[in-house]
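# step 3/5: fold
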Amino acid sequence: MTTPHSEPVLVQLGARPEEAVQLVGPDAPASYPVDVRARLRADADIIVARYPQARSALLPLLHLVQSEDGYLTPAGIEFCSGVLDLTGAEVTAVATFYSMYRREPTGNYRVGVCTNTLCAVMGGDAIMDVLRDHLDIDHGGTTADGAITLEHIECNAACDFAPVMMVNWEFFDNSTPASARELVDALRSGAQVTPTRGAPLCTFRETERILAGFADDRPGALESSGSAGEASLVGLRYAREHSMSAPRAVAGSPDDHPDLGAEAVAETVREKPAPAPSATVPPQPNTIETDPPTKGE
């Protein structure tokens, strides 16, 4: 019995040319001019000097070139590979793994709406829908004026303030569809916007330079750091009010006591609480929490 002859099947691996995930865009630079390269190289040398092994500097270097172009370009990939003596494939493999590195031009403000489970049910999906209509762009899109890039993003680890938005990695807590519209309108108008926690916003490219490891020299920026909000501290305060505490750990492990199994160890700590928490909320200066004693004192 013979098998009928069939034509070979072409299996294309990777993204299709028309997909918006390519690092080679129509206007993406393939290399930097001499003056730009020299300026970036001076910054790169500062970054690389912080690491025992040069290749460990790849992530901040990717932020550096992203601060130059607003996204990752062939020029940025080539620059990083040259500085670190890596292949373009090695740099690209890392760059495409992390969602914080953009593959398309980015607006002045990267607006992310958390649509993970808790934020979604608290209104994150509604906020995303409203912003899609209000800005007339979809996830990953940028407004025609280059001001806003809109994305839905995964958990921001701020569930006690759900639903949460982020603009250039700064938090906007307890958002609503109305506050989200007001926020993007203010950003597009050029108004100075301050997040719920942290310093007033700067542009995406300026933020990327800070993430590359360079100081934020804006007046008052470092004095504007945020702190834990009331929602984050409710559990701690409740535990103190009700004298609740975690069980005290048993010295050693089951391996130290061959005749004491894991179940027996668990039984020995049952209903035997450790001392109640003693931390002040927020931590107060000149206390053991902020100024622990040194050895010998």
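# step 4/5: annotate
The mean pLDDT is 82.
# step 5/5: archive (pending)
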